[in-house]
Design a protein that fits this description.
The protein is of the alpha/beta class. It has two domains: 153 residues, Rossmann fold, CATH 3.40.50.920; 167 residues, Thiamin diphosphate (ThDP)-binding fold, Pyr/PP domains (Rossmann fold). The protein contains 13 helices and 14 strands. Helix 4 runs parallel beside helix 6. The longest helix has 15 residues. The two termini are 16 Å apart. The model has no long low-confidence stretch (mean pLDDT 95). This is Transketolase family protein. It holds the Pfam family Transketolase_C.
């Protein structure tokens, strides 16, 4: 019997795969990364909406109290203040929950930042289902669709806390004046970034080679894509894994290169299937492709409320489900 069809063996295999990969807290890494950025860049300043402790920014207080601005629970004001700081030559890093950074303050992101060509780093924590217990007010599954539709906006979803640090530095050093939306998680996530792995905004990272199916993912779903590739290997299926951390500007070359040698493609994202990573990939392939493409994400409905791991499994945002979908595509 196939491993995918043997519940007990599958459960043990998945547990061992996860246990072999360390976990790190997203919020702790974010706070440490912002601290390092402020040490490196005298022009950098952090702006938050009453989330100093929830985002790890409280560690800035002893050394950088004069470069940490807490505007209170006022995300629109937070983004507007950040735009003003950018207009004065500073490098503001905005930090709020993704639901409010991208929805409540979307006008300020669009007009104050993007329209005026101002470099503001908009960090949205608790994206996707990582604030699952917060329910529909705090779950965020439409942010990529919204932010990538804004002209002049860069959209990046790091795969893990390590890549978060790389992405923040890359956003700060990105030439030009485009604002950058960093889509971040909330709690502990598995680390999948190889030591010394290069990071460049707009350049995908190939984490596994394969010529049967390409698994495309970003954020925490990269871990699930790697797990799916491991499970498919036991089925005799070679899966390529593409960490497409930058949704905009998207790495067209990486997608088209994969399309040239695989028999199917599966895009998995902790986001609505409408307008997110899967839609962006299909836009690259819009001139036609000779293989099936399936998008795995959150369907057009409100997810339930609950812990993140249980929600991911219930909605099919997990390695075993991705592997089954890919296997069935190739049959």
């Amino acid at each position: 019997m196939s491993l995918l069809d043997h519940p007990d063996r599958l459960r043990e295999h998945v547990a061992a795969f996860r246990a072999a990969r360390p976990r790190e807290d997203v919020r702790a890494r974010f706070g440490a990364s912002v601290m390092a950025l402020l040490e490196r860049r005298p022009d950098a300043v952090a702006v938050t909406a009453d989330l100093m402790h929830a985002t790890g920014l409280a560690r800035l207080l002893p050394r950088f109290a004069d470069r940490l601005i807490n505007v209170g629970i006022a995300e629109q004001n937070m983004t507007g203040v950040a735009a003003g700081l950018a207009a004065c030559g500073r490098l503001p890093v905005v930090c709020g929950y993704a639901a409010f950074t991208t929805l409540r303050a979307v006008e300020q992101a669009k007009v104050d930042c993007a329209y005026n060509d101002l470099k503001v780093i908009l960090a949205g924590l608790g994206s996707g289902l990582t604030y699952g217990v917060g329910g529909p007010t705090h779950q965020t599954y439409e942010d990529v669709a919204i932010m990538r539709a804004i002209p002049n906006m860069v959209v990046v979803a790091p795969a893990d806390p390590v890549e978060l640090g790389h992405a923040l530095d890359a956003a700060a050093d990105l030439p030009g004046a485009a604002p950058v939306y960093l889509r971040l998680g909330r709690g502990p996530e598995h680390v999948v970034t190889p030591p010394g792995a290069p990071f460049e905004i707009g350049r995908a990272i190939r984490l596994a080679e394969g010529r049967d199916v390409c698994l495309v993912a970003h954020g925490a779903m990269v871990m699930e894509a790697l797990l799916a590739a491991d499970l498919l290997r036991a089925e005799g299926i070679a899966a390529e894994v593409l960490n497409l951390h930058t949704v905009k500007p998207i790495d067209r070359d990486a997608i088209l290169t994969a399309a040239g040698h695989v028999r199917a493609m599966v895009v998995v994202e902790e986001h609505s299937v409408i307008g997110g990573l899967g839609s962006a990939v299909l836009e690259v392939l819009e001139r036609g492709h000779a293989f099936p493409v399936v998008r795995i994400g959150i369907e057009d409905r409100y997810p339930p409320t609950g812990p993140t791991p249980e929600l991911r499994e219930a909605l099919g945002l997990c390695g075993p489900h991705v592997a089954r979908v890919a296997r069935d595509l190739l049959r």
